[in-house]
Amino acid sequence: MQIYHQKKKPAAPHEIMSAIVAIKRFPNYFTDSKMRSFFARCITGYKYSDVDTKEISIFNVFISLLNSSTIDVDKLDYLIRDAFVTGYDNISIDYDRLLGSATLQESNGKCYFVYNKTALSVIENVIYAHDAEKKWIQSHPVILYEHFLVQHIIRKVNHDFKEKNGQELFSLESLLENGYQNKISLLCDDDIVHWAKSIDNKFCKEFFNRSLRRHPIWKSEAEYRVIVDGLLGEDVFPKLEAQLKILERFLLEESSSQCIDEQSKSKCLSLLDETEATDELSYKDKETMRERYTVVLNWLNCFEKIHETQNVPFDFVLVQTYNFKSGFLKGDLADINVYFSNIRKDFKLGKLITLLSASQKSEMRERFFYLYYKREGKDIDPVKVGKEIAKIVI
Predict the structure, then answer these.
(1) Please, what's the b/e burial string for 287-304 (b: 16 or more CB within 10 A of its CB; e: otherwise)?
(2) Residue 1 included in any domain
(3) Quick one: 59 and 128 in the same domain?
């Protein structure tokens, strides 16, 4: 496991928990430890590192088909399903042709996975569709804010449950049939929604009442680039990112409101005063804390000024997200094998698609952010917001 982590991204916690729950809940489906291991690897994506038999090499093929960073059954499912549910007219994916072209090749007594050359156009379409899905659905500011609300609701529900019961809500016990005695078992979304509706919390209220939702000041990464980046130089991007990380962490961990508002400002001033007054910190630590809270205070003052000049509530939410990067830039994609039956040889996809070998300009900035405000009948001027942000950073 440790060796795998040194080379690959670790499995997500929910994938690991899914494997554990399934093995414990349905033990009759697994005849021995070998099958349990294979099942868990299919969910987590951990391939066998010692491919010493043909069987193990075939196992790795199945793991790739079920859990890949480029093309797998999960991505094919949600690309088609999400386009249907949202009504987004995404690129059509001929999955029958793609799956029908999948086959195995053997070399030195071991098997590896290839697509027939007839699937080349479908493979490209999958990446195009995934790019469109990621950029215009997953990264849509409304979806990102929904994600923000759900994260806060789950943290709040978990906190309240732990306070009342002295145990973590999100645990193996709560997911199993026996669960916590007389408390919770077979935890599901309905349980979370039920508890969230009973909590007196502004984010819960926003989630269930769309008329209370905040609105993004800019509505896309492109608009952000014009309004904010357009006033900054590339050498300033790292400074902006670093300061926003400090602000985001303060809002999440130290401000009870978790918003850019008067409550957060009062908390920051209080912590700054405590830092100045304490004798328990070294000079270096005191200076570090002073700089940190000063950065936070500068940003809070900035948005208080925006509230005053644009006549909108002093009640903003910050959500950071990553810049869009095309799936064609993924290294794993270039390693997909494509088989040409007429010459009985396979080639790496990176040698066949020019987009994979095209040079891309690397940017210093990895992330950007959305800011959400309460409209209350008054639209905010995003250009003026961009200018205020530029004043802080520059």
Answers:
(1) eebeebbebbbebbebbb
(2) no
(3) yes
